Amino acid sequence: MASSSDSPMDGAPVIDFDRFVPTRSAIAARKRKDLLMRVLVAAAFVIALVPLVSVLWTTIASGVRRLNLNFLSYNMSGVIGGRPTPSGGYGGILHAVIGTLEITLGAVAISVPIGIMCAVYLVEYAHGGPLSRIIAILVDVMSGIPSIVAGLFAFSMFSIVFGPGTINGISGSVALSLLMLPTVVKSSEEMLKIVPDDLREASLALGVTKQRTITKIVLRTSLPGIVSGVILAIARVIGETAPLLMTAGYIATTNFNLFSGQMTTLPVYVYQEYSKLSVTCPASAGADCITSIPMQRSWAAALTLIILVLILNLVGRLVARVFAVKTER
Amino acid sequence: MSLHSTATESRGADRRGDAIFKGVAYGCGILILIVLAAVTLFLLFRAWPLIGGDGKANAATVESFTGGLAHNFWQYVGPLVFGTVLVAALALGIAFFIAVGIALFISHYAPRRLAAVLNYIVDLLAAIPSVIYGLWGGLVLVPAIHPFWDWVARYFGWIPIFSGPAANPSRTVATVAVVLAVMILPIITSMSRDIFVQTPRLQEEAALALGATKWEMIKLAVLPFGRSGIVSASMLGLGRALGETMAVLMILSPGLRYSFKLLQASQSQTIAANIAAQYPEANNLGVSTLIGTGLVLFLITFLVNFLARKITRKIGA
Amino acid sequence: MGQRIDVNHLNIYYSDFLAVEDVNIAIQPNKVTAFIGPSGCGKSTVLRTLDRMHEIIPGAHVKGEVLLEGRDLYAKGVDPVAVRRDIGMVFQRANPFPTMSIRENVLAGIRLNNRRIAKSDADDLVEWALRGANLWNEVKDRLDNPGIGLSGGQQQRLCIARAVAVHPQVLLMDEPCSALDPISTLAVEDLINELKHDYTIVIVTHNMQQAARIADYTGFFNLKAVGQPGHLEYFADTTTMFNNPQNEEAERYISGRFG
């Protein structure tokens, strides 16, 4: 080889490597830095645990005091100041639970079909064309819309289309569906993408139409994943407050009609009770009049909400894990 | 004969079904475009009186909101934009290092089993509704953090942003920023973690084989690899903080100044919280003004999210 | 100058699983020692224990000793980070740091210990290391270009330059040519021949011709069956190994009857 006759090291600078030998203090400094970063990284985690534990602990500890069957089975009608109602309780969240369920179901009914079909379009039909790329980016952008803007949109739309001052449950559903839509599209898209192409080809090769292939094979295979994504999306929007404040309103009584009249939801209830701060107890009221009852109700409703959200999260994960269709890879 | 005709008939039905299904799928895709356009158009339409309407009435509305401090929409929205960006930027500043630290802890320091638990805890943090953070912030954190702010104001008060006296109760920008930081922590953490665990093993080994300590390995291999991921995660977190309503509404004592006094009350307000606070008492024109501020917020978050996604997509490519 | 390594009764475990059993080798200074053997026999694992790189896999640990000039690398209080500074490593696939320029890649190791290094010193070191890796003439005009812009063979030589720039006593190479084309392979093999004047070199290779070309000593690793621990079957100077092996298994392997 040529390299042996004239060595590449001819003319190479002579290096005195003793100068680069690390000093003992330099090595110690590096070790100290390594240890310091180790401690800081672990500390970051402990720091994040503090608020989590504090939030959960105070919600549970303060919420448990009022969270009972009476609280769950009455609404706020007939609640005066801090005095107990004839039922023996201090008002409840029945109307808010019903409102939350109806409004959220409304949002699901709007956003899930659209979201899944949009994902079908992106994965099965679009094949990365320019329109689909724009839509994919807009879905991303949509997931960043502040919830209050979604509320303003639903409010504006309803007041323009159905006349000013329209406040009802369904406009809340519209606001929430705007927030759910991108999550549903994204998770469904992911799920459709992992369906192996072999399955599609096998079905098409049998002469099955594309529509049947998608509904019977592709969607069926990815169903558990999609359901899990939808449940997690519900868990995200069920705690939304700001958009419902302006679209669904707040009343003390139970309203079953999604399409007419104000409707209270759990998060809004938490907020409204919080903003009351306290109630006054006249001297004539007995010892069972509690001035801080709004705060207690607020915490109890918050606890209910957290339990609801955690159950949804748990169910969403379980669905994905238990019903997952086993595909190779 | 009849057999043949039913076969063609059913094939015709199949084809129709196919076409309809395809049409619906396309329609839903395009609906996304329409919805975003509708959001913009309805908001613009509702906010129109601000631009096209009676200037004097607009001025009166703004004056009634601000107690005569501001006289037109831009004077009104200016301090709100300032407050929104200030609070969100502070929240990001607090959350950033902690989030990246946790992500590194999960991806490179914690044993595998502990890491799984930590992942779950991060998800749990993300799942808690914002109204509960607001409740917790208002009732637990505000009184609990006051001694700390007091201490900061006493010893660091010479730095203008910490100038005292620290407000009591601490319904201040600083406290809100802390709560928002907790709220955006999970999103930054989980995105950064996802990218950290993808660091090529070879890069990490290259660093270690040169005699790097663990931290030096992270600096040489993990952080450069994850840099754009961290940036885009932070932008998404920032977007979240910019639009957060309830926690701000429930904690902050609002003001409309261009003020950096983080520890004092009644200095700033964010757009989102301002809308929620003023909305119930606003008249028709007032609502238009608020929707105008909402449009500004929409624009800001749109830009931030768009940038974040652009960075993410660049990595993916 | 290179240093000698003595491996005594080395057992390598992944948690409870014994991966490699009772290895004893004397690796001579300033010679090239090659490890050959069928897949899964533990030759790469043994190589990695020589600079304690196997420890990055959770649960990996060893029993026995590895002596570098008589000092046990696994003695109490020995810092693996210091071990890896004295013993350089080159990997199967070239892995320059993607965000760094050619120059920064070469300096990456030295920068760990010497934060502030004079520019003239740095220039000299870069030239020295790149000449040592036989890459200087190809890249001297574009030192500030990214390292990943180079060809595969150049990248691998850049990684060698990066490894020699910290001036280790020993260079470990884990199949350094397996991802390279024949011409780049030849360039790296020439380089290994040059490098042994200054370093002790241990190389793992799948390619027996390569071992025959470049190694002074060759160790043949084998395993009795899948799931059984690997072991060092036979160790000899390369001429004996390939011409007159005194071990039946090694002869069968070399003559291509298995593996």
TrEMBL record, chain A:
Record-annotated ABC transmembrane type-1 domain positions: 97-316
Entry's transmembrane regions: 39-60, 93-123, 135-161, 167-185, 217-238, 299-320
Predominant localisation class: membrane
Organism in which the protein naturally occurs: Bifidobacterium mongoliense DSM 21395
Keyword Protease attached: no
Domain of life: Bacteria
PANTHER family from the UniProt entry: PHOSPHATE TRANSPORT SYSTEM PERMEASE PROTEIN PSTA
Keyword Transport appears in the UniProt entry: yes
Recorded GO CC terms: plasma membrane
Full protein name: Phosphate transport system permease protein PstA
Function: Part of the binding-protein-dependent transport system for phosphate; probably responsible for the translocation of the substrate across the membrane.
From TrEMBL, chain B:
Keywords annotated in UniProt: Cell membrane, Membrane, Phosphate transport, Transmembrane, Transmembrane helix, Transport
Topology of the protein relative to the lipid bilayer: Multi-pass membrane protein
CDD domains hit by this protein: TM_PBP2 (cd06261)
Keyword Thylakoid: no
InterPro entries: MetI-like, MetI-like_sf, Phosphate_PstC, Phosphate_Transport_Permease
Transmembrane segments: 24-45, 80-106, 118-149, 169-188, 229-252, 287-308
A single GO molecular function term of this UniProt record: phosphate transmembrane transporter activity
GO terms of biological process kind: phosphate ion transport
Residue stretches making up the ABC transmembrane type-1 domain: 81-308
Gene3D superfamilies assigned: MetI-like
Taxonomic superkingdom: Bacteria
GO cellular component: a single term: plasma membrane
NCBIfam families, alphabetized: phosphate_pstC (TIGR02138)
Function per UniProt: Part of the binding-protein-dependent transport system for phosphate; probably responsible for the translocation of the substrate across the membrane.
Protein family per UniProt: Belongs to the binding-protein-dependent transport system permease family. CysTW subfamily.
Protein name: Phosphate transport system permease protein
Species per Swiss-Prot/TrEMBL record: Bifidobacterium mongoliense DSM 21395
TrEMBL record, chain C:
Keyword tags: ATP-binding, Hydrolase, Nucleotide-binding, Translocase, Transport
GO cellular component annotations of the record: membrane
Keyword ATP-binding on entry: yes
Domain ABC transporter, first and last residues per copy: 5-248
GO process terms (BP): phosphate ion transmembrane transport
Pfam families per UniProt: ABC_tran
MF-aspect GO terms: ATP binding; ATP hydrolysis activity; phosphate transmembrane transporter activity
Entry protein name: Phosphate transport ATP-binding protein
Lineage: Bacteria, Bacillati, Actinomycetota, Actinomycetes, Bifidobacteriales
